[in-house]
Specification:
- Helices cover 34% and strands 26% of the residues.
- The protein is α+β, with helices and mostly antiparallel strands and 387 residues long.
- Strand 1 and strand 2 form a beta hairpin.
- Strands 1, 2, 3, 4, 5, 6, 7, 8, 9, 10, 11, 12, 13 and 14 form a 14-stranded mixed β-sheet that branches.
C-alpha cells in the first residue's frame, strides 16, 4: 500500500529563512539558476545546460518523477533565494529492495549552515509525514549517473561529464545535520598514452583466445536490436547494490535518446561469447563538460556554433558504465573492454580518461581499474539518515 502524502505546498519559516515548494514557472527558474550565482568565479564549476535542468524538474521528461512522489524546495531569506533541495522516493526501487527509502538531490546553498538545516528540516518533515523511514543522497535527479554522490575528494579540477561538483563545506553541513556515510564512489584517472598497453595486450589476447569471446563497437543506428542486447547484459549483471536496480526498457530508451547525440561508436563496446550471446558492455563518452564550460548553459542562439567548434578540442573521455554477466567474470572480459576502449580513445586522439564511478565495495572493479593504470583522484560520497 502506498503511503499517504502531505498536501502540496511544503512551506515553513526558520530563523528568517522561508522554505517554499517549487510550484510556479518563476520558482522553477529560481531553482534552476541558483548555481550560476553560487559558483560565480569558481573556475572548476561547469554550468549544466539550462534545458536539461528544466527537463529534470518535469515529470513528462524525467522518468524518476513518475516512479514516486517528489518535492523541490527553495530557501528564501530577505527576498533572495539562498538554497535549494529536491526530495522524493523511487517506489519501484523500494519494492525491489523491500525497503522504505527516500532520496535527496540537487542540494545547493550559500555558506550558511542555517540554510542547509532549514532545507533538510522541511524535506525530512515532509518525507516522515509521507511515511518514509530513511533518507539517502545525494542521488541522481534523473535515476541516471548524473549528480550521484557528494564530492569529498578532488576539488582541484573540474568534473567530467555527468559528475557532481560542490564546495567543500557541503560535506560539513550534511554531516553536521546528522547524515552518516553510506558508501563512497570512486573515480580513476588515466593517461592514455601511458596506459600499460603491452602488458594488457598479452593478457587480453590470451583470454580472448582461451575463452573465445570477442569485443565489438555497438551499432548506434540499430536501436531496437542493440538495446535488447544491452538490457540482457544489464539485467544479468546488475549486482545487489543498495541504490540501484536494473532499468526498465523505457528507462534504457530514454537514456539512449539522451546520450545518442554525444556517443562515439568506437567508445561504446559489447562483448560476445562464441555463440554470439552478449556477455559484457562498456560505455564511454567524450568529456563534453569541456564544451559546456564555455556555453553558460545555453545552446541557442550561438551556443551550437561554439559546441561544433569546441567539441573537436575535447581531450578526454569518461568510462561511466561497465557490465559483465556473472558467468564471465574472472575471465578478463572487463579488462578486454577497458583495453579496447583505451585503444579506441587513443586512435581518436584523446589524451586521458576517467573511469567512474565505481562503488567502493565493488572490489573486483576497483582492482581492475588500478591494474589498468588508474589513479584514484576523486571520491563521491552517498549519505544516509534515519528519519
Amino acid at each position: 500500500m502506498l503511503p499517504q502524502f502531505a498536501r502540496k505546498g511544503v512551506s515553513g519559516v526558520t530563523a528568517g529563512i522561508m522554505i517554499r515548494e517549487v510550484l510556479t514557472r518563476r520558482d522553477r527558474r529560481l531553482f534552476v539558476e541558483l548555481p550560476w550565482r553560487l559558483y560565480r568565479g569558481d573556475p572548476n564549476w561547469v554550468p549544466p545546460l539550462l534545458l536539461d535542468m528544466y527537463n529534470t524538474l518535469n515529470p513528462a521528461r524525467n522518468a524518476l518523477l513518475r516512479l514516486g512522489p517528489s518535492r523541490f524546495l527553495l530557501a528564501v531569506r530577505n527576498g533572495q533565494v539562498v538554497g535549494r533541495l529536491g526530495v522524493g522516493a523511487d517506489l519501484r526501487l523500494n519494492e525491489a529492495k523491500h525497503k522504505n527509502l527516500s532520496y535527496f538531490t540537487l542540494f545547493e546553498c550559500i555558506p550558511d549552515y542555517g540554510v542547509a538545516e532549514a532545507l533538510f528540516d522541511a524535506g525530512c518533515s515532509w518525507l516522515k509525514t509521507a511515511g518514509f523511514e530513511e533518507l539517502t543522497g545525494p542521488q541522481s535527479p534523473s535515476n541516471g549517473d548524473d549528480y550521484r554522490g557528494l564530492l569529498i575528494k578532488g576539488f582541484d579540477s573540474s568534473p567530467v561529464l555527468l559528475e557532481a561538483y560542490n564546495p567543500e563545506y557541503y560535506r560539513d553541513f550534511v554531516e553536521k545535520y546528522g547524515f552518516e556515510k553510506d558508501f563512497d564512489r570512486h573515480a580513476y584517472f588515466y593517461r592514455i598514452e601511458t596506459f600499460p598497453e603491452e602488458r594488457m595486450a598479452k593478457g587480453v589476447q590470451a583470454a580472448q583466445a582461451r575463452y573465445g569471446f570477442t569485443v565489438r563497437p555497438v551499432n548506434l543506428k540499430e536501436v531496437a536490436r542493440e538495446l535488447g542486447l544491452i538490457k540482457t547484459i544489464v539485467d544479468l549483471s546488475m549486482p545487489d547494490w543498495p541504490d540501484m536496480i536494473s532499468p526498465s526498457m523505457d528507462e534504457l530508451q530514454a537514456e539512449y535518446l539522451k546520450l545518442k547525440p554525444v556517443a562515439v561508436a568506437d567508445l561504446v563496446l559489447m562483448a560476445h561469447d562464441r555463440e554470439g550471446n552478449p556477455i559484457g558492455l562498456s560505455v564511454a563518452l567524450p568529456d563534453y563538460n569541456q564544451v559546456l564550460a564555455h556555453l553558460n548553459g545555453r545552446l541557442f542562439p550561438l551556443g551550437w556554433l561554439k559546441f561544433l567548434r569546441l567539441k573537436k578540442k575535447i581531450s578526454g573521455i569518461r568510462v561511466f558504465a561497465l557490465f559483465v554477466v556473472p558467468a564471465w567474470r574472472n575471465k578478463a572480459v572487463s579488462a578486454a573492454l577497458y583495453y579496447h576502449t583505451m585503444l579506441g580513445a587513443r586512435r581518436l586522439g584523446y589524451q586521458w580518461g576517467e573511469g567512474s564511478t565505481i562503488h567502493e565495495f565493488n572490489t573486483a572493479m576497483n582492482r581492475e581499474a588500478r591494474r589498468a593504470g588508474g589513479e584514484l583522484y576523486k571520491i563521491y560520497r552517498v549519505y544516509k539518515l534515519k528519519l
